[in-house]
Amino acid sequence: MKNRVYRYIVDKLSQGEKLHFTLVDPDKAGNLDKLEELADLAASAGSDLFLIGGSTSVTPEEAGIVADTLKKTGLPVVIFPGNINCLTPRADAVLFMVLMNTLEPYYLMQVQVLAAPLIRKYGLETIPTGYIVFNMDTAVGHVGRVYPIPYSKPELALAYGLAAEMMGFKLLYLEAGSGAPSPIPPVFPQVIKRNTGLITMVGGGIRSPEAVVELLKAGADIIVTGTVMERDPVKGVEVVKAVKSYRGRDTSS
Ligand code: 1GP
């Protein structure tokens, strides 16, 4: 089926679910038995999908092996590419992203042009995604030459969101950066949900059920976590369960 992964996401959201995505960085995944164990843990806690990607040092071979391992759970595996080296035909789809607040032309259009023929050859589904990084003090902030959005200016983030919607992106990923000391403030997903029809993903620095609830309440549709599951699997499971058991109404409407 065309757009299989995108439909999977939209169908779940339209049934009123909030979604949790587990990020695995192939460069940090360690041995495959441990990865399989963590993947099973995330899947049985209710995580909806695996993202694979990292800002540095991922080889296509590693990305492929990690994709195969994660696919054993039966969940979709989607590439969240730091660069072309993360692409593998063994995933189900790729977030076809534009890092909207970069100062580096490579991430605005060049890498997409380089990647497109490979993606076509691999037969990967593409999910058009606007990507905004808030925190400079992270690997993605540095590698992506990010022009940060001040935390006191949600209206600037909204301008990016409106542009993303007008350009036809389906998802908007609001990112604090992997391992960030704290998540982005909830006002950011809130302002995007109030004023656009974009599916809003939030990630980076989310390590507690309380942080999850705040972001979901503000209107986030999808919560992404990586570090918490690697460092503290018990907490990681709690975070996934907080997403999947959330029943509150969001304050964006
Ligand atoms: C990275 O937002 C994700 O894109 C995950 O961040 O590792 O901090 O959970 P964490």
Task: Outline the secondary-structure elements.
Layout: H1 4-14, E1 19-24, H2 32-45, E2 49-52, H3 60-71, E3 77-79, E4 93-99, H4 105-122, E5 125-133, H5 139-143, H6 154-166, E6 171-175, H7 187-195, E7 199-203, H8 209-218, E8 222-225, H9 227-231, H10 233-244
Parallel strand pairs: 1-2, 1-8, 2-3, 3-4, 4-5, 5-6, 6-7, 7-8
Helix pairs in contact: 2-10, 6-7, 8-10
Summarize the structure.
The chain has 253 residues and is an alpha/beta fold.
**What would the average pLDDT be, to the nearest integer?**
95
CATH class: Alpha Beta
CATH homologous superfamily label: FMN-linked oxidoreductases
Order of helices and strands: HEHEHEEHEHHEHEHEHH
- The total count of helices amounts to 10
**Topology, number of strands:** 8
Sheet with most strands = 8 strands, parallel, barrel
What is the C-alpha radius of gyration, as a whole number of Å? 17 Å
Terminal-residue CA separation = 33 Å
| Low-confidence runs | none
- Please state roughly what percent of the residues sit in beta strands, choosing from under 5%, 5-15%, 15-25%, 25-35%, 35-45% or over 45%: 15-25%
Can you tell me the number of structural domains? 1
Report the structural category. alpha/beta
Overall helicity: 40-55%
What is the overall shape?
Answer: globular
**What CATH architecture would you give?**
Alpha-Beta Barrel
The CATH topology annotation reads as TIM Barrel
Small molecules bound? SN-glycerol-1-phosphate
Strand order of the largest sheet: 1-2-3-4-5-6-7-8
